[in-house]
Structures are given as structure tokens and as C-alpha cells.
Amino acid sequence: MPEMQIVEAAVAACRGDGGANLLGLLMGALSSRLLPLVLGVSLLGAAVLRRSVTLGLSVLAGGLAGALTDPLNHYVLKPLFARPRPCHLDPAVALFQCGSGFSLPSSHAANGLAVAVAILVAVRPPLRLALPILLLGAAVGVSRVFLGVHYPSDVLAGWAVGLVLGWVAGTLARALARRFSSRLALPGGGA
Question: Considering the domain boundaries, does residue 190 fall inside one?
């Protein structure tokens, strides 16, 4: 099936009854620019309240991942490939506002997976926590196809970038935590 047909089918599934169905709302929420901010502030707040170095490390890893991934995609990779978005070629497929930039690779997919992988590499949580973190990171990319702003291959390319840079960021955050571990030890608490 050609990629544009996949995009059209995904958007049609989200539109349902005028776009107000649960799938459409979920895909919109996953693509929201507020999601990383809300999650980051929540994790940082929890780290401070619980005096948890582990939660603080997850914020550091996620922040490093975003700081590495987003500029690389925006300033280097997207201009290099200069692929138009599906919603630029056919405005009818955009469920919400179509982005103004290029399509390949998906920055949302790259950032979502980079943050998830960085947290997993830095913190090494148990599987019961690791799986939802990884699924949420991947779901951000999937949402971009359902919203009609990326092709599936854009998302796959974004995930590849996110996987590599997430690993780099997580490894760096873990090394920084090890280097400054005596300074990170908090009185009375938290792992």
C-alpha cells in the first residue's frame, strides 16, 4: 500500500464522526507540544518532592535527548531531505493544522523515542515501568501519521534518530550522575 493511502486511512480512522472520536482526541493529545512540558515538569516536581535522584536523572536524560534530537532534525536532516508533508500535497488529509516545515524525519517521533530511550538507558527501570515509557515514546510518532502530517517512513526515520540520540543522551546523563553522585546524594532520601 503506498504511503499516502496509509496516511489517508489513518486520518479517516481519526475523523470518525467529525474528528471528535476518542482515537482522534488521543492522537491530538499525543502530538501536543504541551505533553513533554507537562511530563517534564511533573517528573521534576516529583523528583524534588520525593528527593529522588532517580527521577531527577530521568528529567536530565530526557532534557539532553531533546536538546540533541530536535536541533539535528530541524536544522540538518529536514533541510537535507526536503520532503514535503502529506498534508502539503493534499491539505484534505490534515486532521489538525499542518506543520510548515519538511516531513523527513518526524521530529515528534524522534523526540518522543529519544526521551523514552534516554530515560530507559539512564535510569534502567524495571520492565513494568520501562514498557509504558517506551510505548508512550513510540505512540507520539504513530500519532503523526494518524494526524496526516507525516508518512510512516518519516516516523520510522524519526525513531531511528531517536533511538541513537536517546542512547547517547541516556549514557551521558548516567555518566554525569556517576561523576557527580556524591553531590547528588540528598539528605533523608530518595533513590
Answer: no
DSSP string, 149-179: SS-HHHHHHHHHHHHHHHHHHHHHHHHHHHH
* 102-113 residue pLDDT tens: 999 999 899 889
Joined together, the cell numbers standing for residue 82 give 526536503
**Alpha-carbon span 188 to 150, nearest angstrom:** 48
Report the CATH number that the domain containing residue 179 is assigned in CATH: 1.20.144
Residue 114: inside a domain: yes
Domain that holds residue 136: 3-184
**Whether the predicted model's global pTM rises above the 0.85 cut:** no
- Which residues, at least 6 apart from 119, have a Cβ–Cβ distance to it below 8 Å? 58, 61, 62, 125, 133, 170
Is 113 among the domain residues?
yes
Residue labelled with grid coordinates 501536543: 32
- Summarised one tens digit per residue, pLDDT across range 133-178 is 898 889 888 888 878 888 899 999 999 999 999 999 889 888 887 7
Rounded (5°) CA angle 46-47-48: 90
Task: Answer with the residue of higher pLDDT: 96 or 80.
Answer: 80
